[in-house]
Amino acid sequence: MKISGSFPQIIEPELSGAPALICSWIDSNRDTLFYILNTSGAILLRGFSISDNITFRKVCTSITPDLRNYIGGDSPRVAIDDQIYTSTEYNNDLEVLLHNELSYGGWFPNFVMFGCMQPANIGGATHIADGRKILKDLPKDLVERFSRNDITYLQYLPDKNHTSEYGKTWQETFETDNAQQVSGHLIKSQIKYEWTPFGLRTRATRPAIQIHPHTLEVCWHNQADQWHRELSSIKDSVFRDSSDACDKTAGTKTFGSHACFGNGEEISADDLLKIRQVSQKHEVLFNWQKGDLLILDNILTMHGRKPYSGERRIIVAMS
Asked: So what's the pLDDT on residue 305?
């Protein structure tokens, strides 16, 4: 195998490759693969013809067999196979800002794997950023505030029988119509919740910073800026009436989401804009090629999506 680059590190066959070749290499070089992943935070497998859902899933399970469903996630996605989803259904003219997958959730994946079935004609890059570098570059007083207070993610999800105008319903979010099952998941995940006649309110307090379990490095790990109701983000696009997207009670009294500190204090919009500025400074882009598979360490590495035009089909699995 030929290994090059730094972020992401690229693994390619010396000559021509097939999915069976990379699966065999992973089985024989698992320690090397995870050493690279723990060091770089991102690996791009290129040139192995990973061009359909079945092959993508096979390679993903050779990397890590315990794939998970996207339970509790707020991004609009379509399940296309067992534990395989479209990357996102947000409009193609909008940017998905940098974030760590499910950093607000009852669980978050250690690894996120993206497969390129069809690159966009123009744009559509998946941008990535090193959470270690972002943390080091943020103002110390800002980091101290977030580290001391944690982040509380507030969400009010509609019931599918009440409305479909405010993004995903609680049934879509938790992939079930069974309210008792959802309650059990929330209790297990230490998420406070309240059922209402119109839907489900949740309140999850999570750290803004994570320590990597293997490298013990400290990483910026959250998406407070995308949940905060006073900042524009791609989440606004799920509202049919744009005035609803700026609702001052979103995530509490009205449908939508919000983020505050764990002690209930509001997070300064200036702090969140600074976080966006520093994150953007560290973002790295690469152009997709058909058959690519990108592996991200979800603690070390943040990711997003640039706007695009033309057909684009990126699929995702998580573990």
From this structure: 96
